[in-house]
Amino acid sequence: MLLTKVPPLNRDRPSNVPSVIPMIRLMAVASRETPSVSSVTSMTSGSLKKKWRVLYVRPRWEKKVDVQLEERGIERFLPLREEVRQWSDRKKKVIAPLFPGYIFVHVDERERNITFDLHGTVNYVHFSGVLAEVRPDIIDSLRIAVSAPADIEVTGDRLESGTPIKIVHGPMTGVKGMLIEYRGEKRIAIVVDSIRQAVVMEVGLNEVQVVGERLKG
Predict the structure, then answer these.
(1) What is the pLDDT of residues 82-133, one digit of tens each?
(2) How many CB atoms lie within 10 A of CB 121?
(3) Nearest-angstrom CA–CA distance, 140 and 154
(4) Which of 148, 144, 128 is nearest to 194 (CA)?
(5) Are 27 and 1 in contact (CB under 8 A)?
(6) In the chain, what are the domains?
């Protein structure tokens, strides 16, 4: 950029009259750093790419935040299950979050920023400063698991690595996970690394298909 010579700054000029020098410098910097069309397109497409993230919310606010996400048109997944709670005089069935305190959201960067304005949200799950991401196949498997008429258990125990399998028969067809030995029985585990928890379910060996080699622990 060709810049004309600027006369010395008049120090007696009133303070409400802006200096021309900062403006010229700003124009020069803007000209040098203006990104190309291709780089702008790349940054835009990157920020608009949706990924499954884990939103951490206040205790017992999962359903309230879920409603707010729905009102704003943000795709989300709050896995729920029926539990039997023991009261002082009776037992009662309640619908409770499978992972208390967490909601999975499918967002781009713009939508992710919107969620911070919702009542009850705390933060997103990070690991070493990097946003945790959940694979779509794990989300799909969890959807099937919570909708199937099967007993499921959530554990935070460290599980031994197992053989990757997929259920190909029965009401949980499509679920992917690891075949493990859990409490003396063969189970399938859907491991959600981002929250260090796993869903464990009973499975018949005649219902599964091996889809990979046994993972090393």
Answers:
(1) 888 888 788 888 899 999 999 999 999 999 999 999 999 999 999 999 999 9
(2) 19
(3) 17
(4) 128
(5) yes
(6) 49-134 (3.30.70.940), 140-217 (no CATH)
